[in-house]
């Protein structure tokens, strides 16, 4: 039995009308259209109600699937166009657009790919772990592209203060990634842009390709990789980090005081034999790290400071 036709003359009726039509437009391709939605669309001398509704339905799916392709080109290259298209339909059916902007459309794709039930989209190759790493890395680029940039931390704050109380905030556009594959190298090879820009590291902003398309680079083999994806001078970059520097940044980003963050970065006690050398190594990592992070503007004042 068909649901009652919403009366759009009232606020509640208008909301029901919009919800019914939106559900029909966002329904998975091939899904049977509800009679209620069809009753809300008037036919004309050229198109039936179903055909008129189909115009919006087809355009919606073309736009949202194209948006995912634009945000996850490396994942599409790894999966292949056909499998990526099928993944996109499954993902968008489970997580349809809920925002006024397409920017947020792919925010849940890494978690969706990581679910055991969704292993089929990446098996046997490239494998679930690599697919998730690629999705996380490419989503971090979306974040780096348009998240806010706070005023960088003044140098005097870094040079003073009690380490037990001193806290920092990471730039909102900065994402720290602990990955199982060196996907940054794969993405750069895919973009045919491997230039380095001083300490900012690998530039990720896409360039126009010239000439014929090259063959897809080989998929990366497993290798523990720590990355920071960020924005500098309106361009996107990734920078590899050592595990200690990564843990230190992650702890600072979680609001840990500097002294506690350093403990998190170096959880192992100093060796009994020649502890001075290890202490010097740790101090060098911390000092070099803060010098670089200040140069790149990654650190900002902690909330409430």
Structure in words:
This protein is of the alpha+beta class. The chain is built from twelve helices and seven strands. Among the domains are: 1-71, no CATH class; 155-190 and 219-272 and 281-301, Outer Surface Protein A, domain 3 (Alpha-Beta Complex), CATH 3.90.930. The chain has helices at residues 11-26, 35-39, 49-71, 73-79, 81-94, 109-114, 128-146, 155-159, 183-191, 243-253, 258-265, 275-296, and strands at 168-170, 175-179, 196-197, 201-203, 225-232, 235-240, 299-301. It has a five-stranded antiparallel β-sheet, with helices on both faces. Strands 1-7 form a two-stranded antiparallel sheet. The longest helix is centred in the N-terminal third of the chain and has 23 residues, at 49-71. The model is unreliable at 193-198 (pLDDT under 50).
Helix share, percent: 40-55%
Gross morphology:
elongated
Question: Taking Cα atoms only, what radius of gyration do you get, to the nearest Å?
Answer: 25 Å
The biggest sheet amounts to: 5 strands, antiparallel
Stretches where pLDDT is under 50 for at least 5 consecutive residues are 193-198
Helix and strand element order: HHHHHHHHEEHEEEEHHHE
Question: N-to-C terminal Cα separation, in Å?
Answer: 61 Å
What is the fold's blueprint, element by element?
Blueprint: H1 11-26, H2 35-39, H3 49-71, H4 73-79, H5 81-94, H6 109-114, H7 128-146, H8 155-159, E1 168-170, E2 175-179, H9 183-191, E3 196-197, E4 201-203, E5 225-232, E6 235-240, H10 243-253, H11 258-265, H12 275-296, E7 299-301
Antiparallel strand pairs: 1-7, 2-5, 3-4, 4-6, 5-6
Helix pairs in contact: 1-3, 3-5, 4-5, 4-7, 10-11
């Amino acid at each position: 039995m068909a649901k009652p036709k919403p009366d759009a003359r009232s606020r509640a009726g208008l909301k029901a009308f919009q919800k019914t039509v939106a559900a029909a437009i966002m329904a998975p391709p091939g899904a049977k259209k509800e009679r209620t939605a069809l009753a809300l669309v008037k036919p004309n001398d050229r198109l039936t109600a179903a055909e008129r509704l189909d115009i919006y339905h087809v355009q919606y799916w073309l736009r949202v699937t194209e948006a995912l392709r634009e945000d996850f080109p490396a994942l599409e290259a790894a999966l292949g166009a056909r499998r990526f298209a099928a993944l996109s339909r499954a993902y968008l059916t489970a997580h349809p657009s809920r925002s006024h902007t397409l920017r947020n459309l792919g925010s849940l794709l890494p978690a969706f790919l990581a679910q055991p039930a969704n292993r089929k989209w990446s098996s046997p190759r490239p494998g679930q772990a690599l697919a998730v790493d690629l999705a996380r890395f490419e989503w971090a680029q979306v974040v780096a592209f348009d998240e806010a940039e706070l005023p960088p931390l003044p140098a005097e704050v870094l040079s003073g203060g009690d380490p037990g109380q001193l806290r920092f905030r990471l730039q909102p556009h900065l994402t720290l990634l602990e990955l199982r594959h060196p996907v940054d190298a794969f993405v750069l090879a895919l973009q045919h842009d491997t230039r380095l820009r001083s300490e900012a590291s690998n530039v990720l902003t896409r360039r126009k390709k010239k000439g014929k398309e090259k063959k897809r680079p080989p998929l990366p083999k497993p290798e523990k990789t720590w990355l920071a994806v960020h924005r500098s001078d309106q361009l996107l970059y990734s920078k590899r980090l050592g595990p200690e520097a990564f843990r230190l940044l992650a702890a600072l980003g979680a609001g840990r005081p500097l002294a506690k963050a350093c403990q998190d970065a170096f959880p192992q006690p100093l060796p009994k034999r020649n502890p001075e050398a290890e202490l010097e190594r740790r101090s060098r990592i911390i000092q070099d790290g803060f010098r670089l992070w200040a140069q790149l503007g990654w650190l900002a004042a902690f909330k409430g400071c």
